[in-house]
Amino acid sequence: MTASTTHRPAAARSRTAAVGAIAVAGALLLTGCGDMRDKAGPSDQGVKGSSAPLFGKLPKRIQDSGVIKVGSDIAYPPVEFKKGGKTVGIDPDVAAALGKELGVRFEFNNGTFDSLLTGLRSKRYDLGMSAMTDTKDRQEGKDSKTGKKVGEGVDFVDYFTAGVSIYTKKGETKGISTWSDLCGKKVGVQRGTVSDDMAKAESEKCEKEDKDSISIEAFDTDLEAQTRLKAGGVDAVSSDFPVAAYAVKTSGGGNDFEGVGEQVEAAPYGIAVSKENTQLRDALKAALDAIIKNGAYEKVLKTWGVEAGAVKEAKVNGGS
C-alpha cells in the first residue's frame, strides 16, 4: 500500500521510479479488513527453531514464542490478500523466506492500513509489513502534510521498490494520462497512503494554477476504491504500481480497468519496526541479506512477476 503510508501512507504505503511491467496471473479476490490472524499458510513452512542460521539474533521473547506478529492490510493483491482462507502474496512469501532463516513463524494479523503504525506503537504487532513506503515522515512520526509530530517514529528494513500509478475504467480515460490531468476530476485512493498524499498535493497545485481542484474519495482499502471506479463513482484510482498493474490485468478478466501514464515517485517498501526494538530490526536486516544472497528472495519476486522491484541489499531507513 503506496502509501504516504502502498497495497499499503506519508504514513503511506506506496509505492516508485519506473519499475517495469508486471505480469501476474490469477483472479482478483475481494476481502474485507477484519481482525483475523493467519496462523497457517506459507509463513509456517520451514520453521527450524534454534537450528535456524539466524535464530540467535532474535530477541529472547520472540525466540521463546516462535512467532513474529505482523500487522498487515490483507486486501492489497498481489502484495497480500486472502485466497482459500490463506494469506498469500509477495509479502507473505518474503516473510516465509525470512522465517526460514530466523527459525520462527510470521503470523499475519489483518487491519486497516492507516491503523498499522498505531498497532505497532501499542505493541499489538512486532512489525508492520504491508507495502508500506519508507518515508522520513514515518521514520520521525510526523504527519506528511503538516510536518507535525503525531506519534513515535519507526525504523524500516527496506525490501522492495515501487512507485505510484493511475488507472481508469477501460476505454474511459477521460483525457487522464498524468497527475496534472486530474484537476477537476474525481479520484479514489486508499486512506493514509502515498497516493492519498499525492492527490491532496496535486489538488493544491491545481488551485494555485487557477484550475478546479481534485475531488478525492478516500477508502479503507484499495479494493473499495476499485469497486467505486467500476461503478463510475470516480474517474480514476491511484495506488501502488504492483497493485494497479495486478488490478488492470485481472479485474474482470482484464476488461475492467486501463492503466494510464507512467508510474511516479519510486520509493522503497519497508518492514516497519519500533525504534525500541533494534535487535529485531537488525535480525530482519540480516535475514533479508541472507535470502537475497541464497536466491530465495529472487524466487519469490519471480513467482509474482515483480523482479523489477528487487533490491540488491537490505537497507535501514533508506527512504527520503
Task: Describe what you observe in this structure.
By secondary structure, this protein is an alpha/beta fold. It is built from 9 helices and 12 strands. Helix 2 (90-102) crosses helix 8 (278-294). The radius of gyration is 18 Å and the shape is globular. The two termini are 17 Å apart. Mean pLDDT is 87; it is low at 3-37 and 39-45.
Question: What is this structure's SSE topology?
Answer:
Layout (H helix, E strand, L loop, with lengths): L36 E2 L21 H6 L1 E6 L8 E3 L2 E3 L1 H13 L2 E6 L5 H6 L5 E2 L7 H5 L13 E16 L16 E5 L3 H15 L6 E5 L2 H9 L5 E5 H10 L6 E18 L3 H17 L1 H9 L10 E2 L4
Helix pairs in contact: 2-8, 2-9
Q: What is the SS-derived class?
A: alpha/beta
Number of DSSP helical runs: 9
Number of DSSP E strands: 12
Estimated helix fraction:
25-40%
Q: Report the biggest beta sheet as strand number plus sense, adding barrel if it closes.
A: 10 strands, mixed
Give the SSE string.
EHEEEHEHEHEEHEHEHEHHE
Beta-strand portion reads 15-25%
